[in-house]
Amino acid sequence: MDVFFVFKSEIVGLLVSSAAILLSVTACYFLLKPLNRIRDLCDVGYEEQLRLDNYGQTRRQLANEMRRRKKIGEIPPVYPNGWFVLCESDDLKNRQVRSVDALGEHFAVFRSAEGVAYVLDAYCPHLGAHLGVGSRVVGDCVECPFHGWQFRGADGQCTSIPYTSGKIPKSARVKSWPCDEVNGFIFVWYHAEQENPSWKVPRIPEIVTRKWIYGGRSEYKVNAHIQEIPENGSDVAHLDCLHGPSLLYGSDLNAAQGGKSDNGWAPFLQHHWKVKWEANSEEKHVAISSLHHELRLFGRLPFISVDVEAKQMGPGLVCLSFNTSFGRCLLFETVTPIEPMIQRVLHRLYAPVFMVGPIAKFFVWGEAVMFERDVAVWNSKTFTSKPMLVAEDRAINLYRRWFQQFYSENSPRFTFKENVAHPGNINAYWIGKKRHLTLVMYNW
Ligand code: FES
Ligand SMILES: [Fe+2]
């Protein structure tokens, strides 16, 4: 009997300790696993309308309706010139092909057996099959799934037609886009005048040497013109207003409004910001926002302070360097237009190993919550080509003047026209001087 009792308690003890080990391993896993926060076009910023006016609509239906109704304003050209992220390096294995639509173009992005990334025009010149769908990589070429023609990544030249005994025509080639793989991203160079890259995306030594490692990411689709997103860095006055209420109020703007009141515990924790925006005099494609952030208790006592240098490089990339009480880390923000009025925004954090885990998670989460307050505004705002500014808003004007350098004569423009064949249907047109593409605005 005693033996049985001892045996039984040993089993119970074993089960309890195994459960405790399993629980702590799981907790460690979730604590250390980098945050990956993904929000689609309808996920942020429609709370108010859903509460008041949704007539049984789903979030997605409501977001689509608001997209169609929104007055987009007199927007600048929709695809500026510069480097844009097509995908993250992790998303493209050796010998893998991906199809990416962005900037009014269709791309086949692939990685050779040796690990080099290439970007080609997606449509095969033979009979138009999509080189990013169902194709395979052979050496440094991609092979079309339809008839097996192979195209070299470096220059787009056709190198093999498996069934012809004749010579391969020189003109059998697809456009090969300038691309670069830097800091965990695959970039394409887009230029409306087909000019070659005028600057390079800098390699960050701490990332190249793996002193800093990946610490988390967030990903968004935003319903706005691309210029609106980096404009945030020069919009000094919005910081205390939109980003003043504590992170704990989250990204719902109505909830955040509660964080401004003098009642309750709102004044307990508030964010204070100081920012200076200026165009860089040495590299004209660069502008720098220097930002000082303080989290204050009871509106007075600085609790956590962070200095951030946000280096805007061209229209599609910002490198935010954080100097925190825990140490330095770096966050990239990339913006890629996937339609004239839909931007794909990525944030990717790199930090020293000791910060990866809970600290990095907190950073990615905190930045995401604040960013989502901006998204909520962008998703429903119009573009004001002649904004009513006061003296304190002067950096916005400087920013807009600086951003002009990324548009050129043939940068595609976007206007609305009514479809005469189907009155009531609004068609959207991209108009560039050398091309005229039509797109019927569709539900997303
Ligand atoms: S369509 Fe590509 S090989 Fe025929
Ligand atoms: Fe903002």
UniProtKB/TrEMBL annotation:
The keyword Iron-sulfur applies. One of its GO terms (cellular component) is membrane. Its cofactor is Fe cation. One of its GO terms (molecular function) is cholesterol 7-desaturase [NAD(P)H] activity. The keyword Iron applies. It is found in: Membrane. Belongs to the cholesterol 7-desaturase family. PANTHER family: CHOLESTEROL 7-DESATURASE NVD, IRON-SULFUR DOMAIN CONTAINING PROTEIN. This is cholesterol 7-desaturase. It comes from Daphnia magna.
